[in-house]
Specification:
Radius of gyration: 17 Å
Low-confidence stretches: none
Strand content: 5-15%
Largest sheet: 5 strands, parallel
Order of helices and strands: EHEHHEHEHHEHHH
CATH topology: Rossmann fold
CATH superfamily: P-loop containing nucleotide triphosphate hydrolases
Distance between the termini: 38 Å
Strand order of the largest sheet: 2-3-1-4-5
Number of helices: 9
Number of strands: 5
Shape: globular
């Protein structure tokens, strides 16, 4: 099975990305198919080997190019690469301040099974800063064929054509899908959170061209 997976925090356009890429001929793009990968990703983050579990959760889907945009795959990258040889990855990242604001508005209280017990902080906003740094560190270190892109550059269309060509190996043309799951009012990033963000996520931010 030829497959592409996202490495992303969530709240970064992953559902929109699936709807957009599903327009490509020969591509089956799904956001979070059942069974969802929360628990498997958490187990991998805590040191479990999840190859057999992943194989049972994602059987072969046929001849179509399979794209999954679940936001809970980062710690499964090694297992994905072993179970699905030739797997490619889209490293989708959003401004950390916007991500944290969105996550706090729409994700809390979250399901306990979503998060690895390795997160060393208790405050929700600190946990989300840590999550952003951890997932995007994995994205930066991911070997192989990786398309690294800012959410903002997909939403404004400046990188959408390049992504379509990468996914379809030069044969696809798509337009952006309607954005969904954007939620209501967003919490505002607080200035007093900035020193913590710089300490925890600064190196990853700068490596991704973010400040």
């Amino acid at each position: 099975m030829t497959s592409i997976w996202t490495i992303t925090t969530g709240r970064s356009g992953s559902r929109w990305l699936a709807d957009t890429l599903d327009q490509l001929e020969g591509v089956t793009a799904i956001h979070e198919p059942e069974p969802r990968l929360f628990a498997a990703n958490r187990a991998a983050a805590e040191g479990a080997v999840c190859d057999d579990l992943l194989r049972s959760m994602r059987p072969n889907v046929g001849e179509a190019l399979y794209v999954e945009t679940s936001p809970f795959t980062a710690h499964l990258v090694p297992a994905i690469s072993r179970v699905f040889p030739g797997a490619r990855f889209i490293h989708l990242h959003r401004c950390p301040r916007a991500f944290v604001s969105s996550a706090l508005s729409l994700w809390f209280p979250p399901e306990d099974s979503w998060w690895p017990n390795t997160i060393p902080f208790e405050e929700p906003w600190q946990r989300m800063v840590w999550w952003w740094a951890e997932v995007n560190r994995i994205g930066l270190e991911c070997p192989g064929d990786v398309f690294r892109v800012k959410s903002e550059d997909l939403w404004n269309g400046s990188s959408l054509g390049d992504l379509a060509e990468w996914v379809s190996k030069g044969s696809g043309v798509i337009g952006p899908a309607k954005r969904v799951n954007t939620g209501g009012a967003q919490l505002t990033w607080r200035v007093n959170w900035e020193p913590f963000l710089q300490e925890i996520a600064g190196p990853v931010m700068y490596a991704l061209g973010r400040h």
